[in-house]
Specification:
The protein is built from 18 helices and 18 strands. With about 600 residues, the chain is of the alpha+beta class. The longest helix is centred in the middle third of the chain and has 31 residues.
Amino acid sequence: MIGKHQLKMKGFTSLFAIYLAIAIVFSTPVFSTPVYAEGLTPGNSAAGNVLLDAPAQFLPVEQAYQLIPSIDERNLLVDWFIAPGYYLYKHRFAINLYNPKNSDKPLALEYQPGKSIYDEYYDKELEVFYNATQISTTLPTNISSSLITLSITSQGCADAGLCYPPQTQYISVNLAKGTAELLDAPPAYAADSHTEPELSVPTYNSAPTYNIGVMLIFALVGGMILNLMPCVFPILSIKVMATTSAHLGDHNKHLHSIAYAAGIVLSFISIAAVMLILREAGQSVGWGFQLQSPTFVALLAYLLFVIAQSFSGQLNIGGGWMNLGQNLATGNRITSSFMTGVLATVVASPCTAPFMGTALGVALTQPAVISLAIFAALGLGMALPFLALSWIPGLMERLPAPGPWMNTFSQLLAFPLYASVIWLLWVLGRQTSIDHAIVVSLGILLLAIAIWLHRQTDNFIAKGAIIFILAGAVSLSLMPGPSDEKDIWQPYSAERLASLRAAGRPAFINLTADWCITCLANEKLALSSAAFKAALKVHNISYLKGDWTNNNPEITRLLNQHGRSGVPLYLYFDGAGNPVRILPQLLTESRVLAVFNGE
C-alpha cells in the first residue's frame, strides 16, 4: 500500500510541476491579452496584461493626441504632438473634404517615416508614430470657394494596452488668408458651396465589425483556460477532490455542478451589469476594473492568504464563517457549491486568459444584451471542466481514488495562492506606494498571528484578541487611492542648484535614501506637514531632493563637500549669498521653519 501511495504521490507531484509550467507560460506577456476600456477597440498588446502595469491612468484622447494645422499655399500641414507612451496608427489617418449632405471626398496623404511594430490584433507589422509627426496633403485646384472644411480621422493607442476609438476632428481652411483653424464642431453648409474632385485613395471603416458568434466562442474558450490561472486552479482542484471523496450519487453530482456553474455565471453577469451601469454613467471600465481600487486589491490579497492558509492545513474555517476558504470549497451542501463558484470568480478577477481579452474588449462596445451574453459565455466556459466531470459518465471515477495523497496535493495548491498574494502586493505598490504595500504586508502578518492564536487556544480572551487583530488587519487595508497632489520637490542636480543660486532664489536640499530609517522619519515628521509646504511657498524656496538609494556620484560629491559620508544631509541656501546652513540629522518641524525664517 505504501508503494502505491508513493507512486501516486510522485505522479501528482509531476502533474503539479506541469501545471506550474503551464501557468507560468500563460502568465507571460506573449499569452496575455490587454484589457480595454469602455468603447475602445483592441490594438497593440505588446505590453501584455494591463493589470501588470496598472492600474494605468490614461489621458483623455484630446490630451494624448494634439494637432496643429497650418497652410502653405495649397498644401495642408498637420503637426501631431503625441504624449509619451502613446502612438498613432499610420493606416488610420484620413483627411476628407467635408460635405454634410453627400459623402466626404478623401485626399491623398504624405507621411514622415514612422516606427514599425508587430500588432497582435491585426496580426501583422504596422507603422505607428510616437512623440510627434506631420502629415500633409495638397488641396484640389478645382475648388471655387476659398473657405474649405476638412475632416481628419485618426486612431491611437497607449503602450499599456488601451486603444481609443477612431476620432474625427474638423479644420477650417481659408485659402485667401492662408490660415487653417481647428474647429470645435463641424459646420453645416450647402453641399454646392464648392465642388470636389473624385480622388481614389484607400479609406478605412471608423470601427471594426465583429462576428458575435466567434466572440462567444472566444469567451467560452477563454473561460476554460482561466481555470489554469494560479488563482483559480487550486479552487477548482479542491472542489473536484471534495466531490470525489464525498461519494455522491449521479443526481447529487449534477445538482452540485449546476450550483457551481450558476455561481460562476451569475457572478460574471453581475460584474458585467456593474460595468454597463458605470459605462452609461460615463466611466471608462474594463475587465478587472475593481482592481483599480487599492482597498479591493488589499482585501483580495487577504482573502487569498486565508484560503492558502486553509489549503496548507493551518486553518479550518467553520460554518460560522460562512463556509469561506477550503471549507467552502469542500462543503457538500448545494449552497457551498454555489458559493465556491462565486469565490472562484472573485479570485479570477486579476487574471486574463488567451481569447478572453478580445471577447471582453468587443463586449464593452456592444449593446447590453450582447455584452451580458459574452460575459455569461465566459462564466460557462470557466464552469465547463467541473460540469464535464459531473455529467459525463465514468469521467470522475477515472480520477485517483481518495486517500492521504489529497492532503499533500492540497498543500501543494497553496503555493500558487501565496505567489498570487505576492503579486497583488506588487500591484498595490505600483498603484499607491511601497509604504502602502508594506502596511498591507503588516496586515497579512496580523492575519497570520490571528490564525496562529486560533490554533493554540480557544478561550474567551484569545477570541477577543483574534477579533481585535482581524479588525486591525482590515483597517490597514482601507487606504486612499494614488494621491493627485503634485510633488513639491525637484530632483537634485548641481546645475539646478547653481542656477537657483545665480537667480538669488532660496533652496532647501534633502539628501536621502529609501533604506535610511532616519531620513524616512524626518520626511514623515518634519518635511511633509502643511506648515512646511506653506513655508516653501511663502519664502519662495525651491525644494531639491537627492536620492542616494543607489550609488550617485553627484550626491556623493555633495556629501563629501560638507564633510559627510552618508545620509541624511539637509542644506539651506538663503538666496542672499550667505554661507550654507547645515541642519541637524534629527529634524523637527519647528527647527526647519526657524531656519526658513532666518532664525
